[in-house]
Design a protein that fits this description.
With 249 residues, the protein is of the alpha/beta class. The chain contains ten helices and eight strands. The chain has one domain: TIM Barrel (Alpha-Beta Barrel). One of its GO terms (molecular function) is pyridoxal phosphate binding.
């Protein structure tokens, strides 16, 4: 179980702040993007140390871990859920009052389940639609859109459903987890990032909208390139928090 103690040493706090500064400096050198530290399997005290240094956006991969940390950490944290979310866990996710963004939407069923269980909120819950830009079987997400796509294609169908039938949700953008190979080859434009950008263009065409849709692409290995190529938000874990223990540790 994740350590939920909020006590941290000055040395650990300084290490985390230095790591954050390094990532933020790298982002600022090439552009501008929201940095979401992903603290998967790290103690709640690590988040508290960064919170005390002024940071507010944090993300988790496991829904129960996010729920547990949200209960003990300050209520003005803006939580991002970036892991796979099954519809039977929608009620658990919706129970976090300061959940800012669900980044991995990929079905109408999940949208309806989250909408059903959402409590009263001052603002709609932000969501990203996850796109499987690399077409890998091991990755979640919907197929990319192309110039020949129609409103019946899954990503467009989900976006339209959120817009028309889920008043408690706001489609904020698109998210992808690119292939390992593309993420480790900075010598050329990342094809997964290019695919996500073109999917956004085609989705706006199908929605007949000029909405500013965000793009969430880039993690520890490729966030600099992602920002260069137009990412609105990057998810960085090990570069900030260090190597993680095994999940069952």
């Amino acid at each position: 179980m994740t350590d939920l103690s909020l006590s941290y040493s000055p040395q650990r706090a300084e290490e985390l702040k230095e790591n954050m500064k390094g990532v933020l400096d790298d982002i600022a050198a090439v552009g501008n993007a929201r940095l979401v530290p992903i603290s998967k399997l790290k103690p709640a005290s690590d988040i508290k140390a960064l919170y005390d240094a002024g940071y507010r956006h944090f993300g988790e991969n496991y829904i129960q871990e996010m729920v547990d940390k949200a209960e003990v950490l300050p209520s003005d944290i803006r939580w991002h859920f970036v892991g796979a979310l099954q519809s039977n866990k929608a009620k658990l996710a919706a129970s976090v009052p300061n959940l800012f963004l669900l980044e991995t939407f990929s079905s109408v069923k999940l949208a309806d389940a989250v909408q059903k269980h959402l409590p009263e909120r001052a603002e709609p819950l932000n969501v990203y639609i996850q796109i499987n830009t690399s077409s890998e079987d091991s990755k979640s997400g919907l197929p990319p859109l192309t110039s020949s796509s129609t409103k019946s294609d899954p990503a467009a169908e989900l976006a339209i459903h959120i817009r028309d039938h889920c008043p408690g949700l706001k489609l904020l953008g698109l998210m992808t987890i690119g292939s390992w190979e593309a993420s480790h080859d900075p010598s050329k434009p990342n094809p997964d990032f290019e695919t996500l950008k073109s999917t956004r263009k085609e989705l706006l065409r199908l929605l007949e909208s000029d909405q500013e849709l965000e793009l969430s692409m880039g993690m520890s290995a490729d966030f600099v390139q992602a920002v260069k190529e137009g990412s609105s938000s990057v998810r960085v874990g090990t570069r900030i928090f260090g190597e993680r223990p095994p999940k069952n540790a």
